[in-house]
Amino acid sequence: TLDLKILTHFATTDAPFMMECCVRTENDKKGGHLAVRKSDKQLILRESAMCADEDEAAFQDISKHSYFNTNSLWIRLDKLKAIIDKYGGFIPLPMIKNKKTVDPKDDGSQAVVQLETAMGAAIEMFEGATSITVPRTRFAPVKKSDDLIILRSDAYEISDAFVPVLNPGCNGKAPTVSLDKKKYKQVGKLEACTLKGIPSLVKCTRLTVKGAINMSSGCHFVGDVSLVNNSDEAKTLPDGTYTNTEINLTGQPGLGPLLSSSISTTPIDGQKPGTSGLRKKTKVFMSENYLNNFVQAAYTAISDSGTDLSNGTLLIGGDGRYYNNEAIQAIIKMGVANGVKRFWIGKDGLLSTPAVSAIIRERGPVWQKAYGAFILTASHNPGGPEEDFGIKYNCENGGPAPDEMTDLIYEGTKTIRSYQISQEFPDIDLSTSGSTTIKSDDGFTQVTVEVIDTTADHVNLLKSIFDFDAIKALLDRDDFTMVYDSMHGVNGPYSKAVFVNELGQDPSTLINATPKDDFDGHHADPNLTYAKDLVKIMGLDRTGAKIPVEGKLPPSFGAAADGDGDRNMILGSQFFVTPSDSLAVIAAYADAIPFFKSQGGLKGVARSMPTSGAVDLVAKKLGFDLFETPTGWKYFGNLMDSKVLYGGKDYTPFICGEESFGTGSNHIREKDGIWAVLAWLNILASRNSDPTKPLVTVEDIVTEHWGIYGRNYYCRWDFEGVASKGANEMIDKMRKDSAANTGRTMGKYTIATADDFEYIDPVDGSVASKKGIRILMSDGSRVIFRLSGTAGSGATVRMYIEQYEPDTTKLNMKVSDALADLVKIALELCEIKKYCGTETPTVIT
Which of 397, 468, 662, 838 is most enclosed, with most CB atoms within 10 A? Predict the structure, then answer.
């Protein structure tokens, strides 16, 4: 703080530089001290790293070197400028060489030399520099944990001026503290050993601690106290008063089942998370240390990012695929070893991705709020011992970890040398709801694992968003039927909770509603190719064309979910709604949904770049803010949190979507499959409020929409499992050809722009580059190419084709006919057969 007396003194001395110093005590003996250079009597600052090893004892002799630098420096700016000008723009401060390790938390990591300078060392550059001695009331040094525990203890008080001052009970002298430097070097280690408070030091003259010892505010030290623990694990000192004594805790009970073991490991290549986490073959995750390495890197990154793992709750769940529950047990045991004190686990290990986001955002009480979650899913990828597994981390806003976090995790996987795990922590019974508390043998700490209801929090949130009474009235109509296909993914329990338990529908409304660890051998991807059961029931083929039906007509409404419940497909009777059209229709009818209407209506919409521009037309007509983002829900999350987290414009209420069957709103920070289904049912209910009138169908609503806004003919071709090398070479070639392709005429189309999509986030200014090759035609048509980062093996090339048609006489063309010319141009531009060996897609949507 600025002391006017010191300022006045500095001004009257006419000195160019003045250092505030304190008298050294034993606590300060390793800090830099003031000295006089014999050759010219110039004041200098000496740091321990500047001294030879044999001079260390003399350096620490407080009777010989009595004053140390407080780092409060007073400088005349005109004198500083003169020195800077003299040396050509800098001050040649003495160089300090410190021996360190790359990872300061790991003494066994790579040894390095750190070169640094000290600001106080500038004193030797100012001829006539001086110093003054200030009392301890002005300065409380904190250079290491020894100092920090004193400052945090009752040896210091906060004055009326909100300044820490020595407690009068210390009789003018702070206690001397010497903590085991190997056990308490890092602040985190000190905090781990003082979770129950800082011990009383006001009557202590000296405290010496050898080994890791847990202390609390109930421990009172008087006089000279020494604590010893020669074991490998932390031991707990019971509450009480300890006076002039030595206590040996080596043989006392320890952490027992909460004891952390350090397991040696080495980095494993290829653990870089994609847009939706890390996905590999299940057997890869089951291989030695693969899951452990990634989870430890995640725990470290979460902690290093400022999250206190011991405060709040960690949520864990998955889509039920093979290896789900084994992975959960490992993550719990590693969490215990990394300091997590409370877990919420979905019953049977099941939690849909949108439910995870809902629980993080909605579940209380506040002191137990989840700060994040591990989700075990590979989304729509196949499951089973020979198929795919995945893991992702979601942050405290309920959304996927941002790039900064995933980058930090990845960097950790590249340098990891060990992981922490509490091997004796018991496996948790995931089949029964309830809490299990495991205490350490010494009673110092405990861990609580609560198995929670899989569906309750998410369903309660959905009930607050939609008009369930109106939806039930629609479902109960004699002329309305529906079928919902959960594809044996995690959505089954949620569909039962909503449609059977809440809306009173017959269980036969739901198909494939029992989660299976291999999705019953199917590909749980809700599209026309893989949702075969539903597509057939709805009277369509894999291209979306009508097929002959016998007997009664197909159901009025059909929907499907993917493996982790965040995607959706919407169908009418013999009618397929593209994800892009679905997004546009929901935006146009947002006021039919109470969540939006009650907040004054929809404000903003966003789509991923490859998604068709159908929603753009709605936004333009209705005056919504519109955003085009890279693929990845985290980009939508930033827009949703623009005001709350960044103090920017409020774009909420907000709707967003991706062409890959993902739709959602700002109620959570993930796409939400069952939300989209209920949104459509709420819209249908609003159009069918009079049960005496003929049913307005899904097809009616979409064709009416086209009549108002025009139609975006659109399809996506997926080339799955192609060689990564060839796919990347193809994308690189198109990227290089962008300039040459711009202005090129191909058939009836002229390429107005060819580029690689770059996104500048309007909220935080971050830049996302190389997010997809765009071929933008002069008439508004588009061809897009991108590689999916979510495949478990090989690569997936996605090709998107779009043609806008405003002519109301041309709204019912066959999609393949409307896009035939553009498809030919796209295949010619990419040369996929040359690079990937095929131009026949695995899936056409």
Answer: 662
